[in-house]
Amino acid sequence: MSHLRNLFLLRPEVIYLNHGSFGACPRPVFEEYQRWQLELERQPLEFLGRRFAGLMKEARGELAAFLNTGSENLVFAPNATTGLNMVARSLRLQPGDEILSNDQEYGAMHRMWEFICRRRGCRYIRQTIPLPVESPGQFIETLWKGVTRRTRVLFLSHITSPTALIFPVEEIARRARAEGMLTVIDGAHGPGQVEVDLEALGADFYAGNCHKWLMSPKGAAFLYVRPEFQEMIDPLVVSWGDKSLPGSSRFIQEHEFQGSRDVAAYLSVPAAIRFRREHNWPEVQRRCHDLALLAYRQVPRITGLPPLAPPPDAGTPGWFYQMVAFPLPPCDGAALQKRLYEEFRVEIPVFEHHGQSLARISVQGYNTRDDVEKFLEALGRIGHSAWRIGHRV
Asked: What is the 3-class SS of 226-240, one letter each residue?
């Protein structure tokens, strides 16, 4: 995959295995982004006053086709966090209602639900998921132990941020609907890393990033809402969206028209989708998974700790695809991350999650086997000395 490296803007001397944190935009897509910005500046009134609705509809349509849903079922947002806040603030929750989640979720989303619950008199439940996970069925049954007669909402990630685990969201959404609960899915790491078929998935609300694994410019994400719940979602910004434009639903109008803003990142999403198509991205992803699998197998030999999930079965992604996290012996994670970067130019996140030190790598099309092998060598050289001298790096 070395030929793809030159199509990205990343600094060549850095072994960048941290795509999952903020993504990385290919050069042709970034140039399209700049082209849209230039068009806006050349004739702002024409762009925002006459062309805006049509341009946004076209971009939404291409993204919706990629996600297998109707273009009237999703709206653009600057990031998945914004989309999830739109949902959380709009739900008609009552005092005593419960939102069930789990302890593998992104910390900012825990804060969001706790904020909402304090103001609504609700309860936010974090069901403990023992690690390593065993099977999708075991995961679902463990999660369901947190369901009570007051549970109104199930919230979980498609792919978790700290542990990089792919959760069985389709089966969870199906079971939740049968029991009268709403499902809110954090898809920050889903689109572009795994196939996201929103109609088959069956979630009531799904917020996903485009700037991560779909590789659009920063500032592009979306919120999907099932048609029967679209009237429920209040706009975070109240502007001109209540006017009736032909061929556009109230859901689209209220969330698309938010005053003057730069929408170039949204309009560049189709270019990101084309880039994937032009470079046979499903094959690129398979090679990325093979490299993630190499790290999955080798890191436990360095750390002496078991992986967070069983290995994938033949022909299936299993619990991870292009992003995988590893438990580490107790150590100073910040110091380890700093040494990996300063001494070996390896960029990965190292952090603590529920008292367990974790490292996570993300493998994208610009990465090579040599990148992963250099990471393994660096971790071995630093880590072994760290574990021996009292867990300090």
From this structure: CHHHHHHCCCCCCCC
